[in-house]
Design a protein that fits this description.
The chain is 27% helix and 31% strand. It is α+β, with helices and mostly antiparallel strands. The chain folds into 4 domains: 3-42 and 514-638; 69-187, Immunoglobulin-like (Sandwich), CATH 2.60.40; 215-240 and 378-470, no CATH class; 241-376, no CATH class. α2 packs antiparallel against α14 and α12 crosses α13 (591-598). Mean pLDDT is 88; it is low at 1-15 and 630-661.
Length: 661
């Protein structure tokens, strides 16, 4: 059976079997829908059919509160034409709210205008600020936005409408790159939102990248090795640094390496350098770490503090883009819980933007030090101490991850896991896992993880339990729009749409005059109420008197204010009638009184009617049948009992049948 058929069956099954109750349910539902669609008038309002509920929502903003998507736009350029900019390095400041980043762009002599626009856009998108750059194309002025007068390729800088900081600014710092590109701030919106019709479909809701570990008993002892564990966090599409981190050593402990010459190589940006370190007799691990670091930095270093020896580098120059440093790292005590001894480790980093790798040579020096795993992005390290539980591990990892960067949040989350204490029985107990969630997601920005030498992510099960992130996407009047948080800005920020779920069909939304939308909403309430009222009066002997009284009570208690607004009840029929001229003249004469009569929370007619309808449903529709109504058919006993035939009538019928033969 099709999904549509299944849905129809469910709807039919949900309807009351009693025809009388079915009619009540239909009319009450229409009344509730009309009440829910009513809104107090604004200068402009976003309205839609019932099909939009749970799928797409919209609001309007006054011009002074508008959040236009495009903040800054360049002039228009022919993308394939060679640029007239002088070759060289340019820098400019990008500011969003209180934060400023200085960005650099290199222009080559053979670059086209398209190349230059793309380089500036890449620099913006790779910055840590929540700004977005796109190169768009338009055949006519203002085709893409009112702030884009140029034709051809245009660089547009934007900020998502829900970001707290909306004040995006740029300025040249070195050179006149931005001036040559004719970057200008977008004009502010003037007046209310334009009355317009939008046909919207929702292709995808935004999701942040999410990782989770395999659930465990948080009180159970961890199976991770005691000591230091490392991982890398890479965010976005821009260049990432590469890092190797050694094991942690007690610097004064004697090395287990045999005296002799050890070799290895480093490759960065296509250049490979060979290195050699001569380990002397009596060296400590601290000496070895210092010597390897000095070799990578192209510097000599003194080792063996007891009898100082100068360890010379095999090269007189450092490798551009490669740095090495020895730093402090605590080593958990194996004898005293919670204590640690002073340790050291070596960190080797290749700057972002170029490939970097270390490779072992004779003697296996890098392997002995633990410089074997390349971490991409921000390196993160934490310790596991003897006796730690899984809960301890998750806490240590969360603190380390949260303290090292702002793109990935970490926390311990609870769950239920199967019990292993009673095999064969479906029992569960409280478990926990490490939850890693991307923060401050930007369009196209994803988070990836790399494991360190101990394989801690693999041991936790994190790498196999990833939910990739994605951008939100809708189509508005045939034009695709993308968002990092399902908020979309239209009409220079005066209309905001929010995607609530994915759906395939086009859903119509309209920006209309607030008065017009309110008048339409009140008309819908009136029609729905009149239909419900007629039904209740036509079947008043079938329903308990309290049903009509409960629904009519909000009207009766506000009769004076409603008459003032031109809303009256027509005689014995109970039908509502509205004098439109009086309705609006009263509204304009005393808006506060009109709002109190119709819209004030709890006391206004519409909220009170909502509460009354909700209470009718909460009691159960069957409870409102009168005592004499048949619960199955909906008919009273008198209406449903069979007609009785007298003895005389039976005798007449018998004689007639004999006569007819």
């Amino acid at each position: 059976m099709s999904r549509a058929g299944d849905a129809l069956d469910r709807r039919l099954a949900a309807l009351p079997a009693n025809p009388l109750l079915s009619g009540l349910d239909t009319r009450l539902r229409a009344f509730e829908s009309a009440l829910g669609a009513f809104a107090w008038p604004q200068a402009r309002m976003v309205t839609g059919s019932g099909d939009a509920a749970g799928k797409i929502a919209g609001v309007t903003r006054d011009a002074d509160q508008a959040t236009p998507l495009v903040k800054i736009a360049s002039g228009g350029f022919e993308a394939s034409a060679q640029t007239s900019l002088a070759a060289g390095s340019y820098s400019f400041d990008l500011s969003l709210g209180p934060d400023t980043q200085t960005l650099n762009v290199d222009v080559a002599s053979a670059d086209t205008w398209g190349d230059v626009l793309g380089k500036v856009g890449d620099a913006v998108n790779q910055s840590p600020l929540a700004a977005r750059a796109d190169v768009v194309y338009q055949n006519a002025a203002f085709q893409q936005a009112p702030s884009m007068p140029g034709t051809g390729a245009v660089l547009a800088l934007s900020v998502n409408p829900l970001r707290q900081d909306q004040d995006l600014r740029v300025s040249d710092r070195s050179g006149d790159l931005l001036a040559q590109l004719r970057l200008r701030a977008a004009n502010r919106a003037v007046g209310p939102a334009q009355e317009a019709f939008y046909s919207v479909s929702g292709q995808a809701t935004a999701l942040p990248t999410f990782f989770s570990s395999t659930p465990t008993d948080p009180r159970a002892a961890t199976t991770l090795a005691t000591g230091r564990h490392d991982l890398g966090i890479a965010t976005g599409i821009g260049p990432q640094a590469s890092t190797y981190i050694s094991k942690a050593f007690t610097p004064s402990d004697a090395t287990t390496l045999a005296a002799g010459t050890y070799t290895f190589s480093s490759a960065y940006d296509g250049e490979t350098r060979s290195h050699s370190v001569i380990v002397g007799s009596g060296w400590s691990w601290g000496d070895v770490l210092q010597a390897v670091g000095a070799e990578l930095n192209g510097q000599p270093v003194w080792v063996k503090s007891a009898s100082p020896t100068l360890s010379a580098s095999s090269t007189a120059y450092s490798q551009p883009g490669v740095t090495a440093s020895v730093g402090y790292w605590p080593i958990p005590s194996t004898t005293t819980p919670g204590a640690a001894t002073d340790g050291s480790s070596l960190t080797v980093t290749g700057a972002a933007g170029k490939d970097f790798a270390l490779a072992d040579g004779a003697g296996g020096l890098l392997s002995s030090l633990g410089l074997t795993a390349k971490l991409t992005g921000t390196p993160v390290s934490f310790n596991v101490a003897p006796g730690d539980t899984w809960e301890d591990v998750y806490r240590s990892a969360s603190v380390a991850i949260g303290g090292s960067q702002r793109s990935l949040g970490a926390a311990t989350a609870g769950t239920m896991i199967p019990s292993t204490v009673t095999p064969g029985k479906d029992l569960h107990h409280q478990g926990a896992f490490l939850a890693l969630t991307q923060l401050n997601q930007r369009i196209g920005e994803r988070v990836s993880l790399t494991d360190g030498r101990t394989g801690v992510l693999d041991s936790l099960g994190v790498l196999s339990r990833e939910r990739p992130g994605r951008d939100g996407m809708i189509t508005v009047n045939g034009r695709e729009m993308v968002s990092e948080n399902d908020a979309f800005s239209l009409d220079q920020g005066r209309v905001l749409l929010g995607l609530e779920s994915v759906y395939a069909e086009d859903v119509p939304l309209a920006v209309t005059s607030g008065m017009e939308a309110t008048e339409k909403g009140w008309s819908g309430i009136t029609d729905a109420w009149n239909s419900l009222s007629r039904y209740l009066r036509a079947n008043e002997d079938q329903f308990a008197a309290g049903l009509g009284q409960r629904l009519e009570a909000p009207l009766a208690s506000r009769a004076g204010d409603l008459r003032w607004m031109g809303v009256t009840t027509a005689g014995r029929t109970g039908q509502l009638w509205t004098n439109s001229r009086t309705f609006w003249s009263s509204f304009l004469a005393d808006t506060d009184r009109a709002r109190a009569a119709l819209w004030a929370p709890a006391t206004g007619l519409v909220p009170a009617w909502k509460a009354a309808a909700s209470s009718v449903r909460a009691a159960g529709l069957e409870s409102w049948l009168s005592g004499g109504a048949d619960r199955e058919s909906g008919l009273s006993f008198e209406a449903s009992r069979p007609a009785l035939t007298s003895e005389f009538q039976l005798e007449q019928k018998h004689r007639l049948m004999k006569l007819l033969g």
